[in-house]
Amino acid sequence: MNSETVKACKPSLEENRLLLAACFSGDRDAHEKLVRQFSDLVYRVIQHTFSVKDISYTRYDLEDLHNGIFLRLFENRCKRLKQYKGKNGCSLASWIRIIAVRTVIDYFRKESVDALNRSKTAAPLEVIDYMETEEPEPWAEMDREDQWHMIQNGLEDLRPRDKLFLKLHFLERLSVGEVANVMGLSESNAHSMKHRALKRLRSKVLSNQ
User: 52-93 pLDDT, tens per residue?
Assistant: First the structure.
């Protein structure tokens, strides 16, 4: 693909203005379109920022930060997106890049502050408790580190929507209602989805012992 083709495929300022207006109105399709349009950019920014800081990362860090950046863009009725004015030649892509870099830097600062008190393998207690059964099994004999490792592997085997729900709820610490809002679900459907997703996760984790 030559440079002229790439340029032709690039959304115009007017197209981005209309996309933002739709996002501000709460249009879920517009939210999804913006994520698709800028997802690759956000992944590149995350990877580059880790590289510049000479900090290693896992695919879990990459995915969690990617989700966190878009949550930050959409939270409070798109407050940060509304701050974009397009002045001095600043494109929407440049604005999202700035938000992404700030989010990753905030992540580094938080990790630094929490480093002495935080265990990377401390799985949410509700998830661990859900894995328990009345029958003796290897799971009950594992330490938290091994349990969390198995839960992470189980998450990666879930359907994308189940994985996103559980990560937003348990790792990003969003309430079920907040996750419902992000994913365009009713709260009752969100509670049902949580139960089904945990049931599938439990099945995958315990079957892989």
Answer: 877 878 888 899 899 999 999 999 899 999 999 887 778 899
pLDDT at 55: 80
Q: Is residue 120 part of a domain?
A: no
> In this structure, is residue 3 part of a structural domain?
no
For residue 43, give the H/E element and its range: helix 28-52
Tell me the DSSP string of 61-82: HHHHHHHHHHHHHHHHHHHHHH
Record the pTM: 0.52
**The pLDDT value given to residue 8:** 41
Q: Are 22 and 104 contained in the same domain? A: yes
Is 21 inside a domain boundary?
A: yes
Compute the Cα dihedral for 100, 101, 105, 108 and give only its sign. Answer: positive
Same domain, 147 and 101: no
